[in-house]
Each structure stands twice: as C-alpha cells, then as structure tokens.
From TrEMBL, chain A:
Source organism superkingdom: Bacteria
Coiled coil: none
InterPro entries in the cross-refs: Fe-S_cluster_assembly_SufBD (IPR055346), SUF_FeS_clus_asmbl_SufB (IPR010231), SUF_FeS_clus_asmbl_SufBD_core (IPR000825), SUF_FeS_clus_asmbl_SufBD_sf (IPR037284), SufBD_N (IPR045595)
Family recorded in the similarity comment: Belongs to the iron-sulfur cluster assembly SufBD family.
Name the record gives this protein: Iron-regulated ABC transporter membrane component SufB
Organism annotation: Bizionia echini
Domain SUF system FeS cluster assembly SufBD core, chain residue ranges per copy: 212-453
Lineage summary: Bacteria, Pseudomonadati, Bacteroidota, Flavobacteriia, Flavobacteriales
Gene Ontology BP terms: iron-sulfur cluster assembly
Pfam families associated with the record: SUFBD_core (PF01458), SufBD_N (PF19295)
From TrEMBL, chain B:
Domain spans labelled SUF system FeS cluster assembly SufBD N-terminal: 10-167
Coiled-coil blocks: none
GO biological process terms on file: iron-sulfur cluster assembly
SUPFAM superfamilies: Stabilizer of iron transporter SufD
Name used for this protein in its record: Iron-regulated ABC transporter permease protein SufD
InterPro entries, per database record: Fe-S_cluster_assembly_SufBD, SUF_FeS_clus_asmbl_SufBD_core, SUF_FeS_clus_asmbl_SufBD_sf, SUF_FeS_clus_asmbl_SufD, SufBD_N
Species assigned in the record: Bizionia echini
Domain of life, source organism: Bacteria
Ranges where the SUF system FeS cluster assembly SufBD core domain occurs: 174-404
Amino acid sequence: MSKYTEDDLREELKTKEYEYGFYTDIKSDTFPIGLNEDVVRAISKRKEEPEWMTEWRLEAFRVWQEMVEPEWANVHYQKPDFQAISYYSAPNSKPKYDSLDEVDPELLETFKKLGISIDEQKKLANVAMDVVVDSVSVATTFKKTLGEKGIIFMSISEAIKEHPELVRKHLGTVVPQKDNFYAALNSAVFSDGSFCYIPKGVRCPMELSTYFRINQAGTGQFERTLVIADEGSYVSYLEGCTAPSRDENQLHAAVVELIALDDAEIKYSTVQNWYPGNSEGKGGVFNFVTKRGLCEKNAKISWTQVETGSAVTWKYPSCVLKGDNSVGEFYSIAVTNNFQQADTGTKMIHLGKNTKSTIISKGISAGKSQNSYRGLVQISSRADNARNFSQCDSLLMGNECGAHTFPYIEAKNKSAIIEHEATTSKIGEDQIFYCNQRGIDTEKAIALIVNGFSKEVLNKLPMEFAVEAQKLLEISLEGSVG
Amino acid sequence: MELKDKLVSSFMAFEDRIDIDSPVHDIRSEAIKAFETKGFPSKKDEAWKYTSLNSILKHDYSVFPKQENALDYQDVKKYFIHDIDTYKIVFIDGKYSSYLSQTTHEGIDVCLMSSALNKPKYRLIIENYFNKIATKDSVTSLNTAFSQEGAYIHIPKNKLVAKPIQIIHFATGNESALMLQPRNLIVVDENSHVQIIERHQSLTNNPVLTNSVTEIHANKRAIVDYYKIQNDNENASLIDSTFINQKRESHASVHTFSFGGKLTRNNLNFYQNGERIDSTLKGVTIIGNKQHVDHNTLVHHIEPNCESHQDYKGIFGDSSTGVFNGKVLVNKEAQKTNAFQANNNILVSDKASINTKPQLEIFADDVKCSHGCTIGQLDESAMFYMRSRGIPEKEAKALLMFAFSNNVLSSVKIPEIKQRITKIIAHKLGVNIGFDL
C-alpha cells in the first residue's frame, strides 16, 4: 500500500462532500414496508431457513413487540418509524458465482468506487472478502484457502443451511434475543451477515473482512455476525462501513457475537463511516449496534473501533470475561463533527479469576456535535485478582460541541485493582505555535496533533485499516478548525 | 401507612402550627405537591441507582416529636469539638436547646431558622436567599415542605468570624422512630469568612432518619469552610443535601467525614456563578458492617476562570457498600475551567462493594478537566516493610489506611477537628495509636 502523505490529505480535504455518496442502481428485490409476524415469516422463508430458525425469529419478534426503545443514552433524534421501513432487500440477479467475472458489472463498479478492488485485495492485501451489499452476500473469495484449514467463513444464511448445528448451538448465546430493543429487532428480521468458525488450534492465516454498505433507499440494514474461535485458535476480523448519501434517516441495527473458547483469541476491528448527515445535520444513518464477546478460559477478545460516521451512534462492544485468566480489550476512537451524536463505550464484565481488561477510549468532538463515553467495569464477587485499566480522553474543537464521560465502576471483590482516568482538553495554542514556528501550517499541525492523540488506538489496527482510518479521521474533522 | 402518605397527611397538621400567611408558606405548599407527585426516589432513578431507601423507609417515624427533651452537657460533651471556643446551635429531637447552645446577634447572626422565618427584620434575607438554590427533587422538596427549624447564619460584609460555628442535632430516642428535617440557611456576604461544623448524633438504638437541607450563599470574595462529621450509630440514617451558590472570587470548601450511620447519602451541589471561584469537595469514608455511604456530588461551572477540586477516599470493610457519583458540568461559557476529581477506594473485605461513577459533561473547549478513579488494596510490600520492623499487622494496616486518607485531612484548617477525626479513625480501625507521631 502506497504511503499516504500530508499532501494527499490536503487534496482529499478539498472534496468536502461525502465522497462515497453515490447510489448504484442494482435491481433489488424489496419487501413492502412494515413489520409483523408475516413479514418475519416471509424473510425466513425467502432465506430458505429451517423451521427452528423461523421460530427463533418469531420468538424475538414477540419479545420485541413488548419492548420500548431505550432512552437513557445521551443522544437526541427523531425516533424511526419501524412500520415505515422495508425489512428485506436483496440484489436481484443472484445465481451463485464461481468467479468474479460473473458478478453484475455495476456492482463491481461500486466496489471500485469504494476502493475495494477485489482482485487487488486478493493479490496484494491477502484479505478474503465477504462482501455484503444490502444484506446478501454476493461474493466470497479465498473460501478455498480457508477451507483447506477447516475455517468456515460464509454468510450467516448459508451457514444456517450448511452448518445448522454450529449456528443453532451458538446463535443468541452471547446476545440473547431479548437483550435489548435493537438486538430483539435484529434477531427477528436480520437479513444476512457473516459467520466465521475457526477450528481447534488453527491460526487464521489472513485477516477476514467484510464491507457493509447500505445501498437500497429506505432499507434498514440488520446484519448478524457470529464469530466462533474454537479452542486455541486465532482470528483477526475486520469490518468496514461506508454508505451513500441519503436525506432520509437510515437505520442500522446490527448484532455481533464473538465466542472465544479456551485459549482462543479474537481481534475484531471496525472502521465505521456511515453517512453522518450533511453540515446542517440533515440525514445520516442511525447506528444502534449490539456487540458482545464471550471469553472462556485464557481466551482474549480485543475490540478496536474507529467511529467517524453516522448521525447517531449507540454502540458498546463488550466483553464477558467468563473464564479464568481471560483478557478483554477495547480501543476506540470516536470522532463527531457537525451535528453528529455518539454515545459509545464498552462493558467489561469480570466473572472469572485473574481476568484483565483494558479500555482506551479517545473522543474527538468538533462542530456542534456531542460525544459521550459510557462504560461499565463490573467485578463480580468471585472474580479474584481482576484487573482493569481505563483511560478516556476527550479532545474538544470549538465551543459548540460537548464531551461527556459516564463511567460506571462496580467492584464486589477486595482483590480487584481498578484504575480509571479521564481527561478533557483542547489542542493547545502552544502546540500549534510550535508547529507553525517550524513551518507547518495550522491545518497540518492539527492533523498531526489529532493523529498523535489517537496513536495508541490507531496502532492497534491492522496495517490495511490503519491507513484508511487515519484518512477518515482527517476527512471527518475537515473544516472544523479555523 | 406508607411513610409517603403519612408525611403528606402530616403536612396539614403542620399547617395548623405555623403561620400560613407568610410568603414562605407558598414555597412549602408547592414543595409538598412536588413530593406528593414524585414520592421517594427508587433505584430506577439514575441518581439513586446504587442506593435503595427501602430499608429505612419501612419504619413508622413520628414526624413531630411530642415532648421537649433535655440533655446534660456532660453526657454529650464528647460530641462537641469542646476544646475550642465556638458558637453552638444545638437541637434535641428537632427542638432548639437554648441550654446547650451559644448563639449571637452581635455583628453577625447565628441563630434559628424559625425566628428568621417569623421575624420581619430577617425578611429581606429570607426573600432573597431562602429556597433559591435547593433543587426540586423529591427528598429536597420534602424538606422544603416541612422547613421550620434549623440554623440560620448571616455574616454581613467584611467580618471574620472569630470562632467556628457548630451545628449539632441530637436524637434522644424518646420516640420509637424519629424523622428529622432540619433546614439551614447560611449567607456569607462580601469579604467575610466563616467556619462551620455540622454533626448529627443519635443517642439511641431506635431508628432515626434525618433529611437535612443546607443552603449556603458565598458572596463576592467570601470564604466558607464547612465540615461534616458523620459518625452516627448504626440505626441512624442521614440524607444530607447541601447546595452552595458561589459568587465571584469566593472560596468554598466542604469536607465530609463519613464513619457512621446505617445509610448515609450526601448530595453536595456547587454552583459557580461568577469568575475566579474556587470550590473544594473532599471526603473520607471508612465504614464496615452493613453500612452504606453514598456521595453524590455536582460541580456546575457556569462562568470562566474557575477551579474545582474533588478528592474522595473510601475504605470499605465487612458487608458495607460505598457509592460515589461525581459530576462535573462545564457550560460552554465557562472557558479556562480547571476541574479535578479523584476517587480512591480500598476494599478490605470480600463482601464489601463499591460503585463509582465519575462523570464529566463538558461543553467548553478551553478547559482542563480530569478525573481519576481507583479501586485497590493495601500495598503488600509496604505491609511487609512495616511488619518486618515489628509493627503488628493491625497497626500496620491502620497506618497505611491513615496515610491513604491523609490527603483529605491535610486540608482541614481547624487543628482540633483534625485531631478529632484522627481519633475517630483510630477508633474505627480498632487501634490504639496516635497518628500524629
């Protein structure tokens, strides 16, 4: 990957509008709007799912009907009308492809604009892609290489058909159907997503990655991801998001479940760049995501996220440290600009002995945005020698934005050691002066300082993502400093 | 009858014995309505997430004590800071005890809320300051509705009050269960300085619930030092709400020492209405058994160039529970704010628990705000160091715990209070050593 320089950045900053805001006209097979039991059944039927899956969805739907939308988050928005959304949309021309040539050329063009050249990815980046466009997987590459190792990496609807025993055993064990309002909704209507299983003792040789896009106008996107790392295995999973410009609000309610069995390790990285709405705060994606991982003995789950998009973000990737000696990590950068609102953070639930967790959260707010960190560190009475370190730093740009920290710490064990610290500051005038003095102009100086501020988290991202993330950070903050 | 209903119906009885034509009465009537609508807070309220009042609300408290009680000074001397000369405002079962008190009207007013509410000469102050900063939440409204007795302190301009003022509430146990609702108003005018010590003490094993509200106004360049000593017996509970309104260049500090009581809830709210204000909130909590102490603080930075310092230390043994819920709110006009918040806790027992939630809500960009929060144990190597030099385990532990809380003690400006607290800590930790070695 070529080196990204400051000059490239300046070029990029000139394109003010959301650069990925285009719309591909793929003939879609879309359900009429509205949600009821029949729609849930129809989704299930369309996906040719077995009976138990249909029942599972219906159960979730019934629970969801009883629930009310949560209001505790520090965000304000016009609540979506759940009866005004179409719950299923799939690209139409859908024979199974063996090679890329057979794929709808318009779709390939979309990928090209996104900068995801599948061919290039294949050859250079060594990344296998499970590309989700509007909920249905259309291209899965490197399946063979993975297959040789016994790794299962496919869309979740395929997995339901091909590996029902694995899906049935694990689906909903980390995030139960009735976990929360959006998780229940997702469980009822999820259209597709990724499924990944790493067998015992296998180290996945490449970064697994999925690109999500919201493509069809007015279609809610409900992905379901399930990653299972069997004993002693390792996997690094990347997820990146871009979405086209739209004026109406789009809803994204995904559920991600990670299961790390004994001695396994899962590294889950996200770059989220959904359409944040224009500079007047109109439009933008609502991102209500439930992500949770379960660690068995000696297992490790590491969440890394770069959140730059969405009008409203509501996301708390969590770790349940059930097994002894398990480790949970959370590294996050959340950038908000204009009228964006983010309420994000993590939960570390220490249940096992000698469990460790680390939380590094960096929030950058600019424009008129609101950025909140909300976290929970819970040490149960049986979690001897639990250890937690949390650090939440906020950077404010301009005096119309806000930074908020809501950490909850609950300790019930005397041997726990917990440290939490948070700071809020702005970019110091002296720092900028120092740069100016050395011939670095203010805009570049700020990019430099923001990069330094976020370094700890950026370093945790896989190479391919780190560069992209750095770019995103700067694009998101463009025009916010004057 | 539920306590809430009982309180609402007692309000009518209360109206019979007070002047219902005074302007304050409108405030009271409105407050009881607010309480009637809201009721007592439950765990569903975010601010009360970790503190349940259920266990203390079940008693059948008498709201108005039937008879006046007297106490012999010798019996209660130990609850006073008696080795220095002080003004004293003493209440026994909610009634003023002139015998134990020492009030004044010479240059300053150190007297009773009841007389301030009734006498015309205090009217202006009451109109300007009474119930101006107390919030409208349920327990505070309840106190406002029944506000009648408490301390009234007014320090006019340019006065340095020579002696500290002690406010002490005793409960004697003549009632099977007693609820007290003292209401204090403290107004400190320009350039004046005052030190106040507050204590609630139950002398009985009968349950006592105190719902106290204190409003403090620190005007321009005033200095207010407030010390709360909470070492009550374990059948007494306290909900203490303090509201402090600061004007420019004033300094206010509140030190809270929580060692006793069954359930203690401290609501401490600072409002900085002016520039270059300094606010200090410090506390030491050392509890055991099934005690519960909840510190709920708010520092609201409204104008630029102000500072706030918060430092809360807690040591929790047995099955005790500690809660710290600290909030720093910085308005967007409050540029150049420096706000610091620290909360350090030690869990000594496996059954003890601590819930802490240090919050920052910041809307201004040119600020320095930080908070730190730790939960840990005593340092093993420090323990070993002392034990290898012949200091028994218990004493070594006590020394470490004392050192842990010393940051807070070191900023206490009255040496006698420091000594007293040191003694209480030694007693609490069950050791017989003076820490001022």
